[in-house]
Design a protein that fits this description.
Blueprint: H1 51-75, H2 91-116, H3 119-122, E1 125-129, E2 132-136, H4 138-145, H5 150-167, E3 173-174, E4 178-182, H6 187-197, E5 205-207, E6 224-229, E7 232-238, H7 245-251, H8 257-275, H9 279-282, E8 283-287
Parallel strand pairs: 1-3, 4-5
Antiparallel strand pairs: 1-2, 4-6, 6-7, 7-8
Length: 289
């Protein structure tokens, strides 16, 4: 979720956001989370942040404070004896207030990650399901998939981390409206998309060989992902340096026990390369229709 305020989704919450986009570079591509380190090696100081960055951090914080106060007003306002008794809020208003609080919290975390470079430590992929915010870490995806393909799981995680903010700048996506098409058939990536988006069981996951990009070379040609959400889509291509020729050669051949062990090591090394890098440094993104 990007660092950006949004118009209220229910009447009690006023607008807190900025009309500017969530840290986008020219052409609509989302800029990578910077590794912001202060002059003395710690977190960047106020003086080292731009005016725009300080405003965005403040607005994200204000949005969370406002959402918390508004929900408190609905559920925890004390009556005034003999003068006023609060009426129960309608269920739909309560639900909207809960969703706004969840999204404001996720937005503040994303804002801190984008501007201060805290994404590696706080990394989760967030989606909504029936109004509930669900957050998935890489470790969550690995527990679902198992130990077989950590590299594929890592790629799925970074694809979602990269694509989701581009598909809806105002908040987490509805998980059951996400579609995935890819030329990469690895089971780790498939299980990652299934856990977060329920894309496989929902028939929204398509293995499409037509997305293969031979012009990018053997190592990169199948690491192409098209993620869709409602009327939007984004296509992601892995950058050079994250997938090795040796890995691809071993993965596509009959292997001896020694080669199997070597492949297991390469999978783990790839997972570590991918997960230790900001998503925008792992995948280039192009917006679709």
């Amino acid at each position: 979720m990007p660092c950006r305020g949004t118009m209220a989704r229910w009447p009690m919450i006023g607008p807190t956001g900025s009309p500017s986009g969530p840290g986008e570079a020219a052409g609509g591509a989302r800029r990578p989370y910077p590794r912001r380190v202060g002059m003395m090696g710690g977190v960047a100081t106020r003086e080292e942040l731009s005016q725009e960055e300080r405003v965005r951090l403040r607005r994200a914080d204000e949005r969370l404070r406002t959402a918390s106060k508004d929900l408190h007003a609905l559920v925890a306002t004390d009556p005034i004896k003999g003068r006023w008794e609060p009426e129960p809020a309608p269920a739909e208003i309560l639900q909207a207030a809960r969703e706004e609080l969840q999204q404001a919290y996720a937005g503040l975390i994303a804002c801190q990650a984008e501007i201060l470079g805290w994404g590696g430590e706080l990394g989760t992929v967030d989606v909504l399901d029936a109004g509930r915010l669900l957050s998935f870490s890489y470790e969550d995806l690995m527990r679902y998939h198992g130990p077989g393909s950590p590299g594929g799981v890592a790629h799925a995680f970074k694809v979602m981390e990269r694509a989701f903010p581009l598909l809806d700048p105002d908040g987490p996506l509805q998980r059951r409206e996400i579609t995935v098409a890819t030329a990469f058939g690895g089971p780790g990536a498939r299980d990652g998309f299934e856990m977060v988006a329920r894309a496989v069981t929902g028939d929204r996951y398509v293995l499409d060989p037509a997305l293969t990009r031979p012009d990018r070379g053997t190592a990169l040609e199948r690491f192409v992902f098209r993620i869709g959400y409602r009327e939007r889509s984004v296509t992601l291509l892995v950058r050079a340096g994250f997938v090795t020729d040796e890995f691809i050669a071993l993965a596509r051949k009959e292997r001896s026990p020694e080669e199997e062990r070597r492949l297991d090591l390469l999978k783990q090394e790839m997972a570590e390369r991918v997960m230790s890098s900001p998503a925008a440094e792992v995948y280039d993104a192009t917006r679709g229709p």
